[in-house]
Amino acid sequence: MFLQAVGSKRNSASALGLFSLVFGLIGMLSLHVHAVPPQETAAGQVIWGTVEEVTFSSFALVDVLWLGLFSMLGAAIILGLSKAAQSIAERSGKQTFRLTASMGVLLAAVMIVCWLPYMLTWFPGGLYSDTLAVINQAYGAAPLSNQHTLLYTFEWKVCLKLAGYDLFIGSALMMVFQAVIMAAVCSYTVLWLNRRGLGKVGCTATVCFFALFPLFPYYVVSLWKDTTFSTFVLWFCLCFAGAVLARGRISRVQLASLCVSALLVAFARNNGKYIVLAAAVFLLVVCRREIREALVSLFVPLFATLLVIIVVQGPVYSRLGVDSSSTVESLGVPIQQVARVIAYDGELSPEAEDVFYSIMPRETWKAAYRPLLVDSVKWNPSFNAAALSENKLGFVSAYLDTGLRNPQLYLEGFLMSSAGFWNPLVGTNENVAYVQLDMWNTSPISQIDIIESLTGVSLRSVLQPHGYFSCALFALIMLASLAVLAVNRQWQWACTLVPMLLLWGTLIIASPIAYSLRYCYALVLAIPLFVAFPVLALRWSAVEGPLCLTRDGESETVMVDVDSSWQALSHKEEARS
């Protein structure tokens, strides 16, 4: 018992040290990113800032001091949050509040009603430029492409067909579809949390958050693929969490939900398949001890689902002539790193110069480079995408050689290309695909403010965003939740957040833009999970695995599944009394 206690303390200390270091690095690196205010940039937006307007200061010895200070601050925050979670878990007591499925439907309806003012003010929704390209494909006016996913194009096809191919009505149907899907998954989230012990106060707070926090109706109104994708990610995360907590022993309904949500995530956005594939491998590792028992019931259907994803998005798409994604799109961060080396006159080998300058002339590279955005390079008229596609191996070889010669410039290019997803000070002063409440300037239809038409009073000035949250803020909330779980040795619960961590990781590795909330919007949807999981984990840790009860002097061992933990905890409370 003593050795076990010492090992547990070591694990907690290691977890605290690791996450404190992560927060320390984020804090220290944040001090190196500098940008002038939007009004002082030539383009009027920081995201389009030049190398003079957006800079990364050099590392210095004082960074060690800042790293230590931010690490200590991170440790203090983690310990404070851990104490708060423990206090809430201890005071929560026996939970008797139970939501039913019919109540879940009512909660979804309440959410939609609360979102209606936004929907009616910006009716029939806001069209983004990418969405207009998808609509052209849905009409058959442009060849099919999976750049914005065939699934999203299919959703628009259905809405337009139901609308008699009237774009105004079709957009309204799409907005209603997004509202229903989001309300259904948000309501299911409340039920899922309640099933695992979230009480009346917690459920009420979660419902109020979903119904009243403006970022939810904003994304109902914003007609782009990220709304449905993020909703599917939240659903998949809950299904994944159920499988992890039950150690693979889930019902057929739960398995079907896991597989369907995995398919939707994989086909709703191009980084979705990487999230699903990595999560499935992680689930296999977590449940390796139960693999014999869960092989047929869980892993065979799950890997059949993965096979469908791989085959359809590979050979089937190729056979149909569907363009999945261009080389330029998949190499966004490496292109940014190369552009930074050229812009700052870094060292290039003659072979690398031949490769890079065949894609675009040297001076054009220097003029086009924007530290926070690859679009200025890849959309430049002089950019030869064909040369890049035809010589991928040559580019990769030149890229690696250049990285060895210019490690600091590569590091800076990497950090700047994803700055808004880890630096809470970046991306808080402008709307860069933050929401899309209005019509894009090339939209063939216009909006109607129904509330103003009926009452003569417009709510736009009240309802529109008056500030912007940093994308990194929601990532830090996720990391804080993981840290609290790890410090309290709730490793199984920490594993449940892997899909969200993978989503954030794909953006850090290959984000096409330094900040845009739509890419990580699933983290906003998952805030109730980040807040509730540490408390629920501490509350239910005693009923994970065998539960020993003592009745009339006799010991009885009961095998407990997390899904039946409500009843298990009730038995435990009775045993204690």
Percent of sequence in beta strands: under 5%
The main β sheet shows up as:
2 strands, antiparallel
Q: Could you say which overall geometry the principal axes of the C-alpha atoms support?
A: globular
Number of helices: 29
Uncertain segments: 1-7, 542-577
Radius of gyration: 25 Å
Task: Summarize the amount of helix as a percent range.
Answer: 55-70%
What's the N-to-C terminus distance?
A: 26 Å
Helix-strand category = mainly alpha
Q: In which order are the strands of the major sheet placed?
A: 1-2
Quantity of strands, as a count: 6
Report on the architecture of this protein:
This protein is mainly alpha-helical and 577 residues long. The chain has 29 helices and 6 strands. The strands form 3 sheets. The chain has a two-stranded antiparallel ribbon with strand order 1-2. A two-stranded parallel ribbon has the order 3-4. Strands 5-6 form a two-stranded antiparallel sheet. Strand 5 (545-551) and strand 6 form a beta hairpin. Helix 6 runs antiparallel to helix 7 (200-212). The chain is globular, with a radius of gyration of 25 Å. The chain starts with a helix and ends with a helix. Mean pLDDT is 89; it is low at 1-7 and 542-577.
List the helices and strands and how they pair.
Elements: H1 2-30, E1 33-35, E2 54-56, H2 62-92, H3 101-121, E3 126-127, H4 129-139, H5 150-162, H6 167-195, H7 200-212, H8 215-221, E4 222-223, H9 225-245, H10 252-268, H11 272-286, H12 291-320, H13 327-330, H14 332-343, H15 350-359, H16 362-368, H17 375-378, H18 385-390, H19 392-405, H20 407-417, H21 419-422, H22 450-455, H23 460-463, H24 471-487, H25 491-495, H26 498-510, H27 521-525, H28 527-540, E5 545-551, E6 554-560, H29 565-576
Parallel strand pairs: 3-4
Antiparallel strand pairs: 1-2, 5-6
